[in-house]
Prior knowledge:
Elements: E1 3-7, H1 14-25, E2 28-31, H2 32-41, H3 45-56, H4 62-74, E3 82-85, H5 91-103, E4 108-115, H6 118-132, H7 139-153, H8 155-162, E5 166-170, H9 175-192
Parallel strand pairs: 1-3, 1-4, 2-3, 4-5
Helix pairs in contact: 1-9, 2-3, 4-5
Adenosine-5'-diphosphate binds next to helix 2 and helix 3.
Amino acid sequence: xxxxxxxxxxxxxxxxxxxxxxxxxxxxxxxxxxxxxxxxxxxxxxxxxxxxxxxxxxxxxxxxxxxxxxxxxxxxxxxxxxxxxxxxxxxxxxxxxxxxxxxxxxxxxxxxxxxxxxxxxxxxxxxxxxxxxxxxxxxxxxxxxxxxxxxxxxxxxxxxxxxxxxxxxxxxxxxxxxxxxxxxxxxxxxxxx
Length: 193
Ligand code: ADP
């Protein structure tokens, strides 16, 4: 299996580029944000708990995330590979994912860190909020989400750098150009296996 993580701050284009990657390489998209929003929309018991965290811009507790990841990866044993978008977001989650993949005799093949200037992140999220109807795309919540990102998720860059898996991609250029750089990195790494 060829497994990829797409890392980056809220608004960096993770969702857009993940969709391009799965389309071109036939990977299975695992977006914890989408999984959680679906729980909220379906009014499940988990959904009512996670909504309180998402709406404040906080991370959802790790035990809920682990449960969702376990369910969503166990039904994907036949796939060419998994693309994790919005997960892991804490060092605890990163360790958990490494262990989980090891149990499946698999591993993370590469990590893409999408980088965007802070001002541009705000512009993109506020722009998206006009039609996304996401309850967390409001100015106060965006501040919190970015704060949480720098405190809890940013350390993952070093974690994956130490594993020799990190690839930093500027996501300031048009979507098509960013994807071209991503595809070059993936193609190069696919040729190594
Ligand atoms: P973005 O990266 O633009 O903030 P996501 O859809 O990835 O969007 O996440 C939206 C929200 O869902 C996060 O702010 C957080 O509350 C919750 N969430 C998503 N993934 C995780 C995760 N791996 N761990 C904890 N909370 C998560």
